[in-house]
Amino acid sequence: MPPSGWLLGLLAGAFLLVGSDGAKAQGRLDAQYEATLAGIPVGKGSWTIEIGDDAFSASAQGGTAGLLKAFAGGTGSGASQGRIVNGTLVATSYTATTTTSKKSETIRMVLAGGNIKDYSIEPQPPVDADRIPITEAHKKGVFDPMTGSMLRVPGNTELMAPDSCRTAAGVFDGRMRYDLKLDYKRVETVKAEHGYHGPALVCAIYFVPIAGYIPDRPVIKYLAAQRNIEIALVPIAGTRILVPFRMKIPTPLGPAMLEATSFVTTAAPPRVAKTQ
């Protein structure tokens, strides 16, 4: 994966299961993130989310930065939108584009009720006989990476409760189908340079590849064996949705970290129905 794709993956990768309950609310997030490798800045990105009474949208942009940009410049963007049904975020479309000096690639998906109805990769990648094929069953009951990175805590329980972490999700990113399993680690206080200062729910993440990947790829083997990947989640104001504030992945070169430098979230009152 090019550096820009790695950064976008950190920003928009699906690491969380969207729940199935919760009261209607409205909220917005405008966040800026910095990616580092062994403490050295390698990328920057932004993430905007709008949650309405009956619809939502999310978009992210990222790119290489610092010394890495001189060697492997690249950018990435992603977007998802859909409806809110009984408190659940139900995506209808997802798009992700990565661009480097060598190539540009765009993934598009159409979803309905948690199932992938159609998807494409442009330009179409070559067929690899070693890649585990995607079946129709693999495209059912899944999340796209952008929607999947927003965790809905159902009911009226405490947002930072351990059970909020204890979940799992099936994800399809247009190329690969995988499961991500979460478990509770701790609650800690985080502070952005601008915006949010408060508690964060820290979860462990376990990556389980299912299909659409090449088993002998070292990065797949490495991620599947990791037991020290963690993500810190904080709420979007006015909602019961938690989103990533920080993510840390051990690598042979040192820790890869994505962390919010600015995290500004605002709540708006639910829309009142018009009366005659």
UniProtKB/TrEMBL annotation:
The lineage of its organism: Bacteria, Pseudomonadati, Pseudomonadota, Alphaproteobacteria, Hyphomicrobiales. InterPro entries: DUF3108. This is DUF3108 domain-containing protein. It comes from the Bacteria.
